[in-house]
Amino acid sequence: MTTDPAPALPPVLTIPPALRRWDVFCRVIDNHGDLGVCWRLARDLAGRGARVRLWVDDAAALAWMAPDGSPGVQVLPWRDPLADEMPADVVIEAFGCDPPAAYVARMADAAKTGPAPLWINLEYLSAEPHVESLHGLASPQWSGPGSGLTKWFFFPGFTAATGGLLREPGLLARLDAHDRQATRASFGVGPNEDKDEDEALMLLFGYTQPLLNDWLTLLAEAPTPTTLLVTPGYSARQVRAWQAQHAGAPDTVGALRLHFLPHVTQLEFDRLLWASDLNLVRGEDSLVRALWAGQPMLWQLYPQADGVHGDKLDAFLDVALDQTAPTLADPLRRMARLWNGLDDPAGLASAWSALWPARRGAWADSAATRQRRWAGQPDLTSSLIAWAQQRHRDGLG
Ligand code: TRH
To answer: Is 140 among the domain residues?
Structure first.
């Protein structure tokens, strides 16, 4: 595998004293991404010196995602603020979740006697071109409890004209120091880089998808062994249903060994991504973490009835593969579209056989190059801090 020299990492910003207090509002719509993103952001802010309150309507998943909590982060139920709970210096509502009206009214009151809290709507991640033009736009509030305040749109993204991607300080150093072979060995997958034996470890975290059964059959019939780590939920249900139709030793079907995972912490989830040869991820947060892992990956998007996830996937592939030779980019694009149910499933076997052999060569190189390229851009939390600092200096709440 060829690797370019690592780029100089951009500066990591810490919290300025005037913006010490941050409130993050999170509503869990479905799945785990809303809370997953908010928790990573809250922890990252606190690690840089902020005092963070995470207001969430359903914190249940934190019991496995982050059972030990994090110093500097207080988790609060979604409710009207108590009499002594003043709005923070910076207020983030995740994904347009509309903080409680009584809280917003208190923000408006605070603005009458001092600087208005900075109110930011942190949007969903997308590589679509409109993100660059919408990032940083102001939305003055003309009516309702926040009348007179301004809400600002903040878009994560993949280019310098967006808010960037969540990447806490020291992430890549921790990844470099991680003992990949030890993690693999814990699943019975031995060191394979220098051997003829071609044993693969893969992580599956997806939504239900029609293509999965055919793909599992390909792995089961392959000449080389695979261990598949299966996450709880949609993936486990679907894999178990497929497994029930096939005879085999316990949790083994042909060349495919299945390892059903419990829910693990976010930190453990990251380590599994670092150790795997292929990461099959979904949604938003696990996509970003798989990109930082720097291993070959495929992304399943949250499927939408009107098919807009197809545009979102194409936009992502455009930015992710812009420096990739067509010999890899074409099969990767084909496989990614199939993986999202966007092309004729009959093409699966040929797409897979065109792509999988590149996992140690061009595919691995392309993943590593992309990881370094995006690590050269400011991370989302640094962008948020710099942006909030600028608004604060300008007196724009
Ligand atoms: O759960 P998701 O499908 O969330 C999605 C996306 O956010 C999508 O944009 C949104 O519209 C939809 O929810 C409602 O996938 P995502 O974003 O990867 O979030 C999963 C989180 O769960 C992530 O933070 C990783 C974490 N996780 C663990 O910590 N441990 C685990 O064992 C697993 C399986 C996940």
So the answer is: yes
